[in-house]
């Protein structure tokens, strides 16, 4: 990151322009309930969601005594731009599974399976945030009950002593490589009461965080608050 | 080869063996074995559980023993295509292990059950089969699975005309003939023999007898470890890996470790349910039985005297 | 004892609650105490570097193998690859799902690799050639193949795997100069010829996990506690390898997963988590691993056991 401006001329806290299309996959297959193609800058992903379908008898989900717990089995497949899926794709699959398990509403039919299939079409930074956003949109399109509206953002922090660390939102690949800390944060926004409330008053629940890079505890927390504000902003732009 | 073997043993001397249970938390039974300083393995036993529906060929009412062998640090085999059941070496050893151990289990008491044995070989210097049998038998003994007897095993090789027990990998590579046995000492039964070589110049029976003697020695070693387990103590052998200490018997997790904001020391009362203590207790209970039965043996003899006395009394 | 076991299986939440109400956990620890960690260096005599780490009932053994590769024109650094093998335990924990097992171990293994690559100086893996003024690119460098095997699992697989990999790398010895390779079968047999180098660490990482259960924070959860938790936060702390100690450790990585329906996690809670897990337990772990490094640099035999 160049001092002063970012590579593509954005402000520090400016997100890339993102677009998404729903219902991309035709219903010819009959099984795909929700599908989304999300583009954010030059990162593009396509996600399809199948389900909830009946679990196979061989898949046993551990029965839980707690009635509030969701007992849905989530499967996920992530395909890279080219080549075979490797360790990185499996780590992304794991993140998606945990994310989906975290945002499902307890009213989801129990002992069912939801399958998320993601294809990375092009990559330019903030990949996990895009994948999680696309997954959330696909789940909503499929009509699967969620416990709120999930929004994910990516943050990058660059240290350059002695000036304070510099936070940037929605980094692209070059910025990710040069920054010390890169993190993806997912929030679940829900209304405090049942009536429609303004977006500023919605409760933000952290569902997923994964950061890599050294920082002191303060910077980590600061990134967290900035990410929350950014997520609210994304929600607002989506609403209008 | 004149003189002694590389490590100073006699030709019919086995390497020092160390055994410990309670190594894998959560397993029904587990054991850790160390031979010399260069063979180390961990065996865990899971079950008895419900049998898989698709048993291979055997009757659905019988017990099924599922052995899996794992050699994670095997060198030079990374390029070999590992099927879903492991490399060739792992598969062969799993089959041999199953054949060798099965006769020691009381199968009619475990109908329609499946017992799973997972063997992880960290390092192996010499025959793989012998330490695997010893460790598996020890793990089964500590897991309350009904057994007829401990299974012991020994390997014998002939190197340049000399008979050597418990060979190292180097001796194995130089050997001309090789015999591996699995033997149940208290029943005096050999349950598994694997031999390769040319027996025209020496007596196969002599080699087998030497091997059986080696097995009897191993049995004494195993029993001594089990008896100590029953007594609740653990004699740390001089070359034991200390990190496995405290696994089976007393739980070493004192409240001194780590921070305790409340400032109170959590008492380790019997009400707390902790896995290793329970497992060690199970193993201990089982071997209390065996020692008791030894003592019972003495009592039975005494009873016979009593009977004789009673007879004389009644005759009066 | 069997009634307690049955109760635990039928009503796991109530079982745990009864302990937490009294501010202790089922294994007798306080809510904020970590399990004792024991590190044993070089248990495998045939591997160039190895270590076993035991945290309560979780045991992970790691071995490091060396390989050589030719550097391209631009790159100057060595490589590090990590593989995790949960073996038989994975199927037991994942209800027999092999794909799920592979995903989880890949995720853990990938994170360990990322943290290790940031913690060591990969440039120190380049072999220096005879007759100095080696060209900046080209030449040979070491590739480290780190393989971890989990022998028993009771929660916190990532913590134990990371600690075990760090300890194994700390005990690693390899020749630094190209001309030493010919002398002693690349020194891979565990021999330690003169001039052997140790790996240079930039950071000493250690991870501590915190589980959230009904508003209570449980540090270093066991498998039972993890399965009931509504959120798990794993923080990797790092201390600079060349610092004398006493500095505040920094956060190297943070991972949080929560079930939105059951837990409400906000920045405040994350701050509490960071405060709680940066406490004595983590500093003990960091100290245990750092002492392993220092001992090696002094050239002492790293065969002792360190308790923390």
TrEMBL record, chain A:
Keyword Chloroplast: no
Organism for this UniProt entry: Chloropicon primus
PANTHER family: EXOSOME COMPLEX COMPONENT, EXOSOME COMPLEX COMPONENT RRP46
Cellular location(s): Nucleus
Domain (Exoribonuclease phosphorolytic) ranges: 31-145
A GO BP annotation: nuclear mRNA surveillance
Any one annotated GO CC term: cytoplasmic exosome (RNase complex)
Pfam family, one: RNase_PH
Similarity annotation: Belongs to the RNase PH family.
Record-linked InterPro entries: ExoRNase_PH_dom1, PNPase/RNase_PH_dom_sf, Ribosomal_Su5_D2-typ_SF, RNase_PH
SUPFAM superfamilies, per the entry: Ribosomal protein S5 domain 2-like (SSF54211)
Molecular function GO labels: RNA binding
Name this polypeptide is given: Putative exoribonuclease
Keywords: Exosome, Nucleus, rRNA processing
Lineage: Eukaryota, Viridiplantae, Chlorophyta, Chloropicophyceae, Chloropicales
TrEMBL record, chain B:
Composition skew (Basic and acidic residues), residue ranges: 275-291
Lineage top rank: taxon: Eukaryota
Keyword Cell division: no
Annotated spans, Disordered: 248-291
GO biological process: nuclear mRNA surveillance; poly(A)-dependent snoRNA 3'-end processing; rRNA catabolic process; rRNA processing; U4 snRNA 3'-end processing
GO cellular component, one term: nucleolus
Pfam family, one: RNase_PH_C
One GO MF term attached to the UniProt entry: exonuclease activity
Cell compartment(s), UniProt: Cytoplasm; Nucleus
Annotated keywords: Cytoplasm, Exonuclease, Exosome, Hydrolase, Nuclease, Nucleus, RNA-binding, rRNA processing
Exoribonuclease phosphorolytic domain boundaries: 13-146, 150-210
Similarity comment: Belongs to the RNase PH family.
Protein's UniProt name: Exosome complex exonuclease
UniProtKB/TrEMBL annotation, chain C:
GO molecular function: mRNA 3'-UTR AU-rich region binding
Residue span, Exoribonuclease phosphorolytic domain: 34-175, 204-236
Keyword RNA-binding: yes
Keywords assigned: Cytoplasm, Exosome, Nucleus, RNA-binding, rRNA processing
Cellular component GO terms, alphabetical: cytoplasmic exosome (RNase complex); nuclear exosome (RNase complex); nucleolus
Pfam family name, one: RNase_PH
Domain of life: Eukaryota
Subcellular location: Cytoplasm; Nucleus, Nucleolus
A biological process from GO: rRNA catabolic process
Family, similarity comment: Belongs to the RNase PH family.
Protein's UniProt name: Ribosomal RNA-processing protein 43
Biological source species: Chloropicon primus
């Amino acid at each position: 990151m160049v001092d002063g401006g970012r590579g593509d001329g954005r402000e520090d806290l400016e997100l890339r322009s993102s677009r998404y299309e729903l219902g991309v996959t035709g219903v010819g297959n009959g099984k795909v309930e929700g599908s989304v193609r999300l583009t954010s800058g030059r990162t593009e992903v396509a996600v399809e969601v199948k389900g909830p379908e009946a679990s196979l008898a061989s898949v046993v989900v551990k029965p839980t005594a707690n009635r509030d717990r969701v007992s849905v089995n989530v499967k996920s497949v992530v395909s890279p731009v080219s080549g075979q899926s490797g360790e990185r794709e499996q780590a992304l699959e794991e993140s998606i599974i945990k994310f989906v398990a975290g945002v499902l509403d307890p009213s989801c039919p129990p002992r069912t399976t939801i399958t998320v299939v993601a294809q990375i079409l092009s990559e330019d930074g903030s990949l996990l945030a895009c994948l999680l956003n696309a997954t959330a949109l696909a789940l909503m399109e499929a009509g699967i009950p969620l416990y709120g509206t999930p929004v994910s953002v990516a943050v990058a922090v660059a240290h350059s002593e002695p000036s304070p660390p510099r936070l940037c939102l929605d980094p692209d690949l070059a910025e990710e490589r040069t920054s010390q800390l890169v993190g993806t944060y997912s929030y679940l926004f829900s209304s405090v009461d049942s009536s429609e409330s303004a977006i500023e008053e919605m409760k933000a629940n952290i569902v997923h965080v994964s950061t890599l890079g050294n920082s002191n505890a303060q910077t980590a927390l600061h990134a967290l608050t900035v990410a929350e504000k950014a997520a609210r902003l994304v929600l607002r732009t989506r609403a209008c | 080869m004149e003189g002694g073997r590389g490590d100073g043993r006699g030709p019919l001397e086995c390497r020092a063996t160390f055994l410990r249970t309670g190594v894998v938390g959560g397993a029904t039974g587990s054991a850790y074995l160390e031979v010399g300083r260069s063979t180390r393995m961990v065996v865990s036993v899971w079950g008895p559980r419900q049998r898989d529906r698709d048993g291979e060929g055997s009757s659905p009412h019988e017990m099924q023993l599922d052995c899996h062998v794992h050699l994670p640090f095997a060198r030079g085999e990374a390029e070999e295509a590992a099927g879903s059941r492991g490399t060739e070496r792992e598969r062969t050893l799993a089959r041999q292990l199953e054949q060798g151990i099965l006769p020691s289990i009381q199968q009619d008491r475990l109908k329609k059950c499946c017992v799973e044995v997972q063997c992880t070989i960290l390092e192996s210097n010499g025959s793989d089969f012998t330490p695997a049998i010893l460790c598996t038998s020890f793990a089964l003994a500590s897991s309350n699975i009904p057994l007829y007897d401990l299974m012991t095993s020994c390997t014998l090789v002939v190197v340049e005309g000399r008979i050597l027990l418990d060979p190292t990998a180097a001796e194995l590579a130089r050997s001309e003939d090789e015999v591996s046995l699995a033997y149940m000492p208290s029943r005096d039964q050999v349950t598994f023999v694997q031999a390769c070589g040319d027996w025209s110049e020496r007596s196969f029976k002599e080699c087998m007898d030497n091997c059986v003697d080696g097995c009897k020695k191993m049995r004494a070693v195993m029993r001594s470890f089990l008896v100590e387990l029953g007594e609740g103590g653990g004699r740390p052998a001089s070359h034991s890996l200390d990190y496995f200490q405290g696994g089976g018997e007393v739980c070493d997790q004192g409240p001194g470790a780590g921070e305790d904001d409340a400032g109170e020391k959590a008492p380790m009362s019997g009400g707390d349910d902790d896995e290793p203590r329970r497992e060690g207790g199970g193993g201990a209970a089982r071997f209390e039985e065996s020692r008791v039965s030894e003592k019972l043996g003495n009592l039975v003899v005494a009873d016979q005297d009593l009977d004789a006395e009673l007879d004389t009394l009644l005759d009066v | 004892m069997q009634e307690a076991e049955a109760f635990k299986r039928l009503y796991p939440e109530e079982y745990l609650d009864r302990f937490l109400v009294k501010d202790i956990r089922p294994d007798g620890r306080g809510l904020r105490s970590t399990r004792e960690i024991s590190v044993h260096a070089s248990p495998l005599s045939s591997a160039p570097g190895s270590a076993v780490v035991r945290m309560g009932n979780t045991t992970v053994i790691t071995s490091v193998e060396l390989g050589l590769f030719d550097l391209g024109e631009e790159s100057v650094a060595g490589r590090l690859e990590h593989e995790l093998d949960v073996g038989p335990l994975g199927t037991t924990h994942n209800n027999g799902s092999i794909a799920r097992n592979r995903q989880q171990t890949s995720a853990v293994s990938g994170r360990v690799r990322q943290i290790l690559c940031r913690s060591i100086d990969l440039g120190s893996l380049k072999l220096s050639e005879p007759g100095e003024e080696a060209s900046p690119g080209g030449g040979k460098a070491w590739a480290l193949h780190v393989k971890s095997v989990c022998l028993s699992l009771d929660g916190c697989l990532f913590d134990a795997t990371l600690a075990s990999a760090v300890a194994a790398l700390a005990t690693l010895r390899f020749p630094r100069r190209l001309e030493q390779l010919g002398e002693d079968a690349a020194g891979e047999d565990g021999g330690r010829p003169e001039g052997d180098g140790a790996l240079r660490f930039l950071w000493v990482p250690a991870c501590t996990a915190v589980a959230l259960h009904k508003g209570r924070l449980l540090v270093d959860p066991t498998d039972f506690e993890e399965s009931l938790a509504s959120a798990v936060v794993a923080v990797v702390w790092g201390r600079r390898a060349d610092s004398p100690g006493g500095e505040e450790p920094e956060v190297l990585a943070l991972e949080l997963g929560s079930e939105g329906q059951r837990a409400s996690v906000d920045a405040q809670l994350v701050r509490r988590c960071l405060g709680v897990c940066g406490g004595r337990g983590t500093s003990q772990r960091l100290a245990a691993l750092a002492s392993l490094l220092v001992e090696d640099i002094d050239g002492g035999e790293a065969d002792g056991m360190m308790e923390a």
